[in-house]
Structures are given as C-alpha cells and as structure tokens.
Design brief:
By secondary structure, this protein is of the alpha/beta class. The protein has one domain. The chain has seven helices and eight strands. A four-stranded parallel sheet has the order 1-8-5-7. Strands 2-6 form a two-stranded antiparallel sheet. A two-stranded parallel sheet has the order 3-4. The two termini are 14 Å apart.
C-alpha cells in the first residue's frame, strides 16, 4: 500500500512539472514521533528543537480542511477529534511579520486560492482555534525552503528540517484522509511557496 502511495505521488507531482527523487528507507533524519506533541505545519521555519510530530500544511487547519461537514465548525470539530484520538494535539502558527496570516496555507485559504474549499475568514479561524485550544506558534524569519519532502514512513517525522517543506502523509492516511486530495492540497500550497526552479520533491 505504501509503495503504491509513493508511486502515485511520483506520478502526480511529475504531471505538474516537478522533479521527483525517491529516497532510500531508514534515513537517520527520520525520528520517531512523540505522542502528545502538537501537529505542526509543513513550514520549514518550525524550530528543530521541538518534539518530533507529524506535519502537514496548516497543521490542524490543513487536516480540518479535508474533513466532511456543512460548516467550518463541523470540519474542525471532526479534524480535532481525529488528531486527539491519534494521540497528538492540534497545532497552528503565524509569524512575526504577518501575524496570523504568516501561515501560507491558511492565508491562501482565506484569500480563496483553493477553489475547491469553502471560504474561511480570519476571524472564524481565531474563534475556532480558541474553542479547540490550539497550540499556536509564532515563527520567525522569512521562508527559505529549497524543496519539499513527503514522508510515508509510518510513525516518523523529519528532523532537522534544513530548509525543507515537510508533509508526513502517512499521518493523514492514518486519519482516514484519502491520498488524492492530500496530494492536491500539498502541491497547491507548495507551489505558492516554491518558485518553479525549486520544485523538487523528495519522497521517503
């Protein structure tokens, strides 16, 4: 199943013009995740001294975006329940330059760049984040990512990040999220952050 997911990911990103490299298994950069840690955004600025935890664009926001429901509240309720049920905590971030819009995924969602997702407002996110007591980080610096890593090795997270965008798609699959929408959302967000000459994907 995982090998099939890697092959599907390779085909999908190559169809969008990305360069794709399949990495060997068992990399020493993949650390065992620590339950009780907040789910992080794929942002390369996340501190490397944090506990290894699954990452996806937007953290809990990116997971909630892929949940069923008629309202954002319903989607976030279900997404947070799944995160807590998996032994982790809901996480999100902003940054010192742009405040809550310092998360590129959430900013793109609020600005309507994901045409298949219903619109989200900044105020609505703040209210929902407070209801669910997100761990909300304020990151420093500007984006410096050189490439994108997708990790399918169950129970692991990439540390240190070393200027990589990182998405632990094994985690999304474990929550019951289908691979196809996760790939679409991953590619769309990564392409906002990476210019064409940096669109290189490494698959673990």
């Amino acid at each position: 199943m995982i090998e099939q997911a890697r092959e599907q990911t390779t085909d999908y990103f190559e169809s969008r013009g990305w360069s794709v490299i399949r990495m060997p298994t068992g990399s020493p950069d993949l650390k065992n995740v620590v339950p009780g840690s907040p789910v992080l955004c794929s942002d390369e600025r996340n501190p490397d001294d944090s506990s290894p935890a699954p990452s996806f664009f937007g953290g809990a926001d990116g997971i909630a975006a892929q949940m069923p429901g008629d309202t954002h509240q319903e989607r976030y309720d279900l997404g947070v329940d799944k995160i807590l049920g998996s032994g982790f905590l809901p996480g999100s971030h902003g940054d010192k330059h742009h405040g809550d819009l310092g998360c590129a995924f959430r900013r793109a969602w609020i600005e309507g760049k994901f045409l298949w997702l219903p619109a989200l407002s900044e105020l609505e996110h703040k209210i929902i984040r407070g209801i669910h007591n997100f761990t909300h980080l304020i990151l420093e610096g500007e984006h410096t990512a050189n490439d994108f890593i997708i990790n399918f090795e169950h129970g692991s997270a990439l540390l240190p990040r070393r200027n990589h965008l990182v998405a632990e798609l094994w985690y999304l699959l474990s929550l019951g999220i289908k691979l196809e929408p996760a790939l679409e959302l991953s590619a769309a967000t990564a392409e906002i952050l990476l210019p064409e000459d940096r669109r290189k994907l490494l698959i673990y």
